[in-house]
Design goal:
- By secondary structure, the protein is of the alpha/beta class.
- Helix 13 runs parallel beside helix 15.
- The longest helix has 24 residues.
- The chain is globular, with a radius of gyration of 24 Å.
- Strands 6-7-5-4-3-8-9-10 form an eight-stranded mixed sheet, sandwiched between helices.
- The chain folds into two domains: about 300 residues, Alkaline Phosphatase, subunit A; about 240 residues, BPG-independent phosphoglycerate mutase, domain B (2,3-Bisphosphoglycerate-independent phosphoglycerate mutase, substrate-binding domain).
- It contains 16 helices and 17 strands.
- The site of one manganese (II) ion has 6 residues, from loops.
């Protein structure tokens, strides 16, 4: 059935207000203590918004089932968070879809698996991805099931190319994950399968760059995985990770690339003609660049030196617009009819081709973001779809991130630049919605550097001020929220909430996201004075934000969207 794109008018709220939607990345709400960097930092603007509670500030869930993850033990992340914010509904996400496909065995009956299986007789099966149980990009138990299933279905030679984590899990935990995997592989060897780890490296330094921020990261991985070349060579991966971690300043996220070599010093698992490759991350953003390098005949981002003729499948299809990769083991969530698409289609006077047209005021969307988060308020927001819905109505602007540094070195990142671009967009009068992601709390929180994260939170707060001042000037409306927690808790805790200590008595730094709720604050001179948060939406989550934003633009949300957070009192 054709989608009815015309949104009903909101019965009480006017159209034509400028709306700033601000997403603070990694900004949750938690008890105030010394490990809560948002609490420690001076954040007068966000504090003042909170003073508007409960009418203008409230908390929503940003993790677990509220954002389509398998369980409420799963922390939130940018992909599922922005998907929910933009789509207004909760879709079963990659992690969950892969779980079901493995549990039912359907993954092995699908087109993607059949395709790679054709290489099993004469070629090697290579698995490439993030090795941890973080559940943000991948999960070790899924890799284990994939190994088991593939070997039972005829894979005789398997090579695993690992990327160590330390970002979604504790730094240092990579050794344990590698030991677990080695143990599984040795059991496969006992069954006659020639299965080994072939190469590795830290996720942030090898392979898992995103949004084309730094292709040299992908090249380092390519050299190790495909060409079998790396500056470090080891006989086994446990020794590799232990040795490389012992270097001063080393950590799991940034381990240099290594290859495993045999007695004669040759790499045990370069990728060659006739092989099959599966990238086992279910999350898209940090696998897209490698997928392009593996799949595109025309490719000029770095010299691939040798381009093996392989059968390649992603765990999921990572980009629904580019249809990348062409083959995949599990179908991605079908995130359709996102709020961005609706809003664009409801402001355009002449609307082209397939969805009919509506009359109305010009509705233009402006999105501003640093490179490291570029796709968050575009690609993720639009349901893992790159590109514009209507280029004449949307403008996506990128502020280049610093590259080649860890963000604790420059914790202010480009927050002010982003905010100034947002301000200018609001003041220009050309845009109805200005959507922004401020990455500081998250990107610096991931470094585990508490002092730097405090600076980061202050910087994000100052950026919010610049945007809210502009909203004030144009008589607009703001909605400030976050995609998941991170900076509000920087320590690993026991069940009772007490910080955990390591063997040396130091606290265990938490580099990952959290299970905490996030704030939603609304306000601005353009907000109808009767608007307040409803008290009858039980356990609201990020998916309730889309309908809310549609209301702020003067529209009712589609009926199947999660309910709006706001109501309008008559007085
Ligand atoms: O950096 C990333 O890839 C993830 C953590 O793995 O963070 P976010 O979801 O905030 O992008
Ligand atoms: Mn995020
Ligand atoms: Mn993050």
């Amino acid at each position: 059935m054709a989608t009815a794109w015309t949104l009903p008018d909101h019965p009480k709220l006017p159209k034509g207000k400028k709306v700033a939607v601000v997403v603070l990345d990694g900004w949750g709400e938690a008890n105030p203590d010394e490990y809560n960097c948002i609490h420690v930092a001076q954040t007068p603007v966000m504090d003042s918004l909170k003073n508007g509670a409960p009418e203008k500030w409230r908390l929503v869930k940003a993790h677990g089932t509220a954002v389509g993850l398998p369980s409420d033990d799963d922390m939130g992340n940018s992909e599922v968070g922005h998907n929910a914010l933009g789509a207004g509904r909760i879709f079963a996400q990659g992690a969950k879809l892969v779980d079901s496909a493995l549990a039912s065995g359907k993954i092995f009956d699908g087109e993607g698996f059949k395709y790679i299986k054709e290489s099993f007789d004469n070629g090697t099966l290579h698995l490439i991805g993030l090795l941890s149980d973080g559940g943000v990009h991948s999960r070790l138990d899924q890799v284990q099931l994939l190994l088991k299933g593939a070997s039972e279905r005829g894979a005789k030679r398997i090579r695993v190319h690992i990327l160590t984590d330390g970002r979604d899990v504790l730094d240092g935990s990579s050794v344990g994950f590698v030991e677990t995997l080695e143990n599984d592989l040795s059991q496969l060897r006992e069954k006659g399968v020639d299965a080994r780890i072939a190469s590795g490296g830290g996720r942030m330094y090898v392979t898992m760059d995103r949004y084309e921020n730094d292709w040299s990261v992908v090249k380092r991985g390519w050299d190790a995985q495909v060409l079998g070349e790396a500056p470090h060579k080891f006989k086994n991966a446990v020794e590799a990770v232990k040795t490389l971690r012992a270097e001063p300043g080393a950590n799991d996220q940034y381990l240099p690339p290594f290859v495993i070599v045999d007695e004669s010093g040759s790499a045990v698992g370069p990728i060659v003609d006739g092989d099959a490759v599966v990238t086992f991350n279910f999350r898209a953003d940090r696998m897209t660049m490698l997928a392009k390098a593996l799949e595109y005949a025309d490719f000029d981002k770095f010299d691939r030196v040798r381009v093996p003729k392989i059968r390649y499948a992603g765990m999921l299809q990572y980009d629904g617009e580019l249809l990348l990769p062409k083959r995949y083991l599990v179908s991605p969530p079908e995130i359709d009819r996102t709020s961005g698409e609706y809003l664009v289609k409801n402001g355009v006077r002449t609307f082209a081709c397939r969805h009919g047209h509506t009359d109305g005021t010009s509705f233009v969307d402006k999105v501003i973001i640093e490179t490291v988060k570029f796709g968050h308020v575009t690609f993720f927001w639009n349901g893992n779809r790159s590109g514009y819905f209507d280029e004449s109505k949307e403008e996506y602007v990128e502020v280049p991130s610093d590259s080649g540094i860890t963000f604790n070195v420059k914790p202010k990142m480009k927050a002010v630049e982003i905010a100034e671009k947002a301000r200018d967009a609001l003041l220009s009068g050309k845009f109805d919605q200005v959507r922004v992601n401020l990455p500081n709390g998250d990107m610096v929180g991931h470094t585990g550097d508490i002092e730097a994260t405090v600076v980061a939170c202050k910087a994000a707060d100052e950026a919010v001020k610049i945007i809210l001042d502009a909203v004030e000037q144009v008589g607009g409306i703001y909605l400030v929220t976050a995609d998941h927690g991170n900076a509000e808790d920087m320590v690993k805790r026991n069940k009772a909430g007490k910080p955990l200590l390591d063997k040396s008595g130091a606290i265990q730094i938490l580099t990952s996201h959290t299970l905490q709720p996030v704030p939603v604050a609304i306000g601005g001179p353009g907000l109808h004075p009767g608007v307040k948060f409803r008290s009858d939406v039980e356990t609201p989550g990020l998916a309730n934000v889309a309908a809310t934003v549609m209301n702020l633009h003067g529209f009712e949300a589609p009926a199947d969207y999660e309910p709006t957070l706001i109501e309008v009192a008559d007085n």
